[in-house]
Write a structure and sequence with these properties.
alpha+beta, 25% strand, 11 strands
Length: 298
């Protein structure tokens, strides 16, 4: 494994033949931390925030790009980057921009909407998506400063905004602090549960339905489904080798395993968990009948 050099390009070479594209496809970006809390000398491991753990852990950060066909309700991981700023000097935002650029100008996979988490709702990335003539939806933190009075009042925290009934149903035009003076976005107050409200912005100023925005935001959870499946089924967190190249190769192999399992799941109609269980069951039955390594009784 240490002599190989497996890169994200290998993932695309394997997944491009099975992705079912749609002109109205969605691209989702989010990161996941591969838990290495007990490691001492594994390269690329750093302390970073994990949404799964709701705190800071030691691990390897992976920024993932997932493609969703909304008509078929199918999704595929198509790209990823390892977060290792000590070596390449790149932030997670830089990695997302690189993947977007590759997607638009090299992979040529059709899509029109980008979905992101609050961590990626920064003006440089949002303006970059604008420049690609794509739509984005992303929640903002409740302390983000915005202006809904167009200069008549000072910027205020999103959570303190007043909403009319019409605005609750159709959204409101705002300006986010530090954005260009003429750059407006549309803000929606989306009720997620009885004790959680998200404030979602989009550059699609024609969007006029909070219910539609809520449905769009639900699509973003596909990447959480991917994170759960790849961690539970591929052993992506299991490698304890110290060298960065071996860790990178292991992550690449885990991505390929997920793609293969997911493709079989789509073909058979089974869940990816059922596919993994059947493969293991069939292997165990085969080995019990005709073991590759003969067993002898002492």
């Amino acid at each position: 494994m240490k002599r190989e050099k497996l890169t994200p390009r290998l993932l695309w070479d394997n997944v491009k033949e099975v992705v079912e594209p749609d002109a109205n496809g969605y691209i989702i970006f989010d990161d996941s931390v591969l838990d290495k809390r007990y490691s001492e000398e594994i390269e690329m491991v750093r302390r970073q925030y994990s949404g799964n753990e709701h705190g800071v852990v030691k691990g390897i950060g992976v920024v993932n790009c997932v493609y969703v066909n909304p008509k078929l309700q199918k999704f595929w991981v198509i790209d990823y980057r390892i977060f290792n700023p000590d070596v390449d000097g790149k932030t997670k935002i830089d990695h997302v921009k690189d993947m977007l650029q590759s997607l638009v100008y090299q992979k040529l996979l059709p899509f029109d909407t980008v979905l992101m988490d609050t961590w990626y709702a920064v003006h440089s990335l949002m303006l970059y998506i604008d420049s690609l003539d794509k739509i984005y939806y992303c929640p903002l933190k409740i302390n983000r400063l915005v202006d809904d009075k167009f200069g008549k009042e000072k910027y205020k925290r999103i959570e303190t905004l007043e909403w009319s009934q019409e605005e609750l149903e159709s959204g409101k035009i705002i300006k986010i602090k530090s954005f260009p003076a003429n750059k407006k976005v549309k803000l929606f107050r989306v009720t997620v549960s009885t004790n959680r409200t998200d404030y979602v912005v989009t550059n699609d100023l024609s969007q006029s339905s909070t219910d539609v925005v809520q449905q769009v935001c639900k699509i973003r959870w596909k990447i959480e489904e991917f994170h759960r499946e790849i961690k539970q089924l591929t052993g992506i967190e299991s490698c304890q080798c110290r060298k960065a190249r071996i860790q990178r190769n292991h992550i690449a192999c885990a991505m390929l395993v997920w793609v293969r399992l997911k493709n079989i799941a789509y073909q058979t109609g089974d869940t990816i968990y059922q596919i993994k269980h059947k493969l293991l069951s069939n292997y165990l039955i085969q080995q019990l009948k005709r073991p590759d390594i003969p067993m002898t009784l002492v």
